[in-house]
Amino acid sequence: MSLPRVELYTDGACSGNPGPGGWAFLLRHPASGKSIERAGAEMETTNNRMELKAVIEGLSALKSRSHVDLTSDSRYVLDGLREWLKSWKARGWKTADKKPVKNQDLWMRLDQLAAAHDVKFHWIRGHNEHPENERCDELAVRAREELVRSRRG
């Protein structure tokens, strides 16, 4: 039985680093034409955490093992998944210079989720008129702004 193919587009946004941030994903099933969008926000976070959170939330939305075409403008996320993760795990979640991996909690969760699927990685330049990336950016920024507004009362 062949796995379903899905497209996952993600983005994170942060105002200040650290500061309030938002994440968003767009998940599309090309065979059916169905898609979902989700977004969320946190008050004290970093852009890298929001980029990771977007992918985690997108993969978490999948109900079964799938072929996932992950498209992101975050080299941090894509390079981490493609290149760094295996070495970090082999070194006990330490970097090459023996420092603890930043955002280890999110990387560990992302590692579990990515292992449950067949993920292909695609980098795109951010803010370059890519429709799905622009949509995710819009959703992430809106989620962040709504959170900040709600905290101001």
Question: What structural category do the secondary elements indicate?
Answer: alpha/beta
Major sheet: arrangement of strands: 3-2-1-4-5
Distance between the amino and carboxyl termini: 52 Å
User: How helix-rich are the residues, as a percent range?
Assistant: 40-55%
Write down the domain tally.
1
* CATH-derived architecture: 2-Layer Sandwich
Q: Tally of extended strands?
A: 5
Low-pLDDT stretches: none
User: Please, what is the CATH homologous superfamily?
Assistant: Ribonuclease H-like superfamily/Ribonuclease H
Biggest sheet architecture? 5 strands, mixed
Radius of gyration: 16 Å
Q: Which H/E pattern describes the elements?
A: EEEHEHHEH
Helical segment count: 4
Beta-strand share of residues: 25-35%
Could you please describe the fold and organization of this structure?
The protein has 153 residues and is α/β, with parallel strands linked by helices. It has a single domain (5-79, 118-152), classed as Nucleotidyltransferase, domain 5 (2-Layer Sandwich), CATH 3.30.420.10. The protein is 42% helix and 29% strand. It is built from four helices and five strands, in the order βββαβααβα. The chain has a five-stranded mixed beta sheet with strand order 3-2-1-4-5. Strand 1 (5-14) and strand 2 form a beta hairpin. The protein is globular, with a radius of gyration of 16 Å. The N and C termini lie far apart (52 Å). The mean pLDDT is 96.
